[in-house]
Amino acid sequence: MSSAETAKPPAGLVDLASERVGGVALIANDEFFAEKENLLKPGRGIFIPDKYTDRGKWMDGWESRRRRTPGNDWCVVRLGLPGIIKAVDIDTNHFLGNHPPFASLDALKSEAFPTDNAAIEALPWNAVLPKSALNPGSQNLFTISGENVSTHVRLNIFPDGGVARLRVYGVVVPDIRKFKPGELIDLAAVENGGVPLVCSDMFFSSMNNLIMPGRAENMGDGWETKRRRGPGHDWIILQLGMPGRVQKIEVDTNHFKGNFPDTCSIEGCDAGGASADELTSIIDTRWTELLPKTKLHADRRHFFEKELKPIERCTHLRLNIYPDGGVSRLRVWGTMADAK
Question: Total structural domains in the chain?
Answer without folding.
Answer: 2
